[in-house]
Each structure stands twice: as C-alpha cells, then as structure tokens.
Design brief:
alpha/beta; Rossmann fold; 2 domains; ten-stranded mixed sheet
Length: about 290
Amino acid sequence: MKTLLAIDGSDQSYEAVRALKYLARAEELHILHILDIPSPAYPMMVPEVAQELYTTIERTMREDGARLLDRIVSLLPTDSGPVTKHMEIGSPADRIVGYAEQHQIDLILVGARGLGPIKERLIGSVSHRVLTFSKSAVLILPNFVKSLKQVLLPLQGSQDAERALLFLRQHPFREAVTITALTVLPQTRPPWPVDAVAEREMEGQALRSAETFINSVAADLKQMGYSTHAKSTLGVPVEAILQEAKAISADLLMMGSRGRHGLSRMVLGSVAHAVLHHAQRPLLVFH
C-alpha cells in the first residue's frame, strides 16, 4: 500500500506520524510538506522589492521545511517502509490531492486543524478539502491515537461494502483488529397510508434485509482473517454511528464517501463529514 503523510509542523502532524505504528508497512511512504508562501500585500511596493521579499520568505520557509522533513523522518516508527521526502509550493489541500493522484497513493494521513464546525462547512479546512476531493482513502486524525483494536465500519449498501472490502483486502493495519460492521436504516414512514400493523411488518422486512446484508459483509471480513461483529438498527444514521462508536469504544471509524460531491458537498456536508465534526475520533474515509 502506498501511503502519503502530509505534514505542516502542527501537533496533529506529529500525531499522524505516531499513528503510522498502527498501520501495515507501506510499499512506499511519501512525506509531503507544502509551502503556502504568502505574497507581499503592499500595493504601493515596487515590484523588484516585492520579488526580493517573496524570495527571502521562500528561502526561509524552504530551510524550515527541510528541517521539519528531517525531524519527521527521524520520528517514524520502526519498519514504516521506504521513505521519500517531498516539498512543494502551493495551496496545501490542492497540492496534497494532486500529489496523491500523480503518485497513485492508496492512503493519505492528515491531521485535523479545524476552523470550527460552521466555518469548516462553508470554507473547508485543509483536511476537509482533502477528504472532499481526494480519490485516495483519507485518514483524518483529530487527536492522539491511543490504540487501534476496535474499528467501526458503518455501511449504507452494496457499493459501500464493495469499496470497504476492496480497501480492507490490502490489510492496512499492522496488528489484528476487530471490525464491527454496522448498517443503519433511517426511520421513515411509507409515502402511502398504511395501518400500524402493516407499517411494523414493512419495518421488520427492511430490518431483516439489512441484517442479511450486514451478516454477509461480516462473513466476507472473516474470510479475510478479521474478527468481526455485525449489527443492523433503525435510527438517524449520524446519531446511531456515534452511539455505536461510544458503545464499543471505537479507536477508528471507517466510512465511505457517500453523499454530495463538489461545492454542494462542502456546504451541506455528507454523513462522513457530520461524523467527523462530532465523533472526535480518527476517521478513515474510503472512496
């Protein structure tokens, strides 16, 4: 598996480094630092002076970036995989996404440096922009990872399950984990009038279908060597996911990037975005 670790010198960057000890040895480990160099904001400044100032800032940031990359490499867990260091200039989220696509990265690790739930939904932090636009799986780390033993895998349907199984076939975790596969049926009334008995019967049929689906996924995971549990329930998806994560003390949530795309997805938010805002747990989103 090709892994990309995006760093910016924040505390979350160092947490991402530590999280590597829970992931399987990478086929390639890319350490990427983006220089977001500010342009001189003085309209009356002589162009030559502005360019000289920009060059000085760039040189200083490059020197600091080189030291940061060396520091990160020195902190990598044992047997993380062959390492390549990279430094680029530009918009951090855009460069991370572009780099991952260029190098066919399987998993991006990035820390969550939030602007607050309101601003993040409207503007998008680096982590959220990467989550929104990347074609690679993205592991967002809002805080310290204490262990990685319990994984919650909420699934919506067969396409969601296929993408999850495809990613998990790579056996991305260093040690054995227990995966709880969960599917949540939204509690909605039929669009046509029915009596209470008929409504309960329809609800029961839907739950039985969901149980069959999630048990099938759990069986596939067991064939891959994972310890698994399966659960199906009625409820509001985000609330049910957060409740189950708390109940099993999940160390990691894994979710598909279902929902809206592009700008509308950034503004309105998908289930994965909503879970990230409220869970305060590492979230791995597969595409």
